Amino acid sequence: MKVVLQRVTWAEVKVDGDVVGRIGPGLLALVGLGEGDKQADLVWMARKVVHLRIFKDDAGKMNRSLLDCGGDLLAVSQFTLYADSRKGRRPSFVKALHPEQANPMFERFVTMLTEYGVNVETGRFGENMDVSLCNQGPVTIILESECFHS
């Protein structure tokens, strides 16, 4: 599982010109699910996302988590995080989880985040989406569950 986190002042996602998800200060999470991802990856990633200390404290240091600051989260499914572009000019997505498996896992991940008390907005799985954001900092963190456990 791969997640690209961006600390944002605001973020929104549109489908066919209509806003389907919008947040104020918090995190935009681009979420990629890959072959071999399991429930343990979802649990690990949800815990990591809500507790990662990347928000400024009163001294200006990145010392507060999403939970500490009461921020929102916009989760957008993005299979292209599993692009393999080592050969040729067209990326391969064979390591991305198939949509019929990825969609329920993405939904479980969102549920886990909400169980921490986080307000979570989402895009629409499998749709062509326009994502807009104001990256605050800028702070962008890449998380990969496979790097930390088997």
Mean pLDDT: 95
Specify the CATH architecture: 3-Layer(bba) Sandwich
CATH topology: D-tyrosyl-trna(Tyr) Deacylase, Chain: A
Give the count of structural domains. 1
What is the level 1 CATH name? Alpha Beta
Distinct helical segment count = 3
Write down the overall geometry. Answer: globular
Count of extended strands: 8
Q: Helix and strand string, N-terminal first?
A: EEEHEEHEHEE
Question: Mind telling me the CATH superfamily name?
Answer: D-tyrosyl-tRNA(Tyr) deacylase
| CA gyration radius, whole angstroms | 15 Å
Helix content bin: 10-25%
Q: Approximately what portion of the residues adopt beta-strand conformation?
A: 35-45%
Main sheet? Answer: 6 strands, mixed
Could you name the ranges where pLDDT drops below 50 across 5 or more consecutive residues? none
Report the span from N to C terminus.
Answer: 12 Å
Structural class call reads: alpha/beta
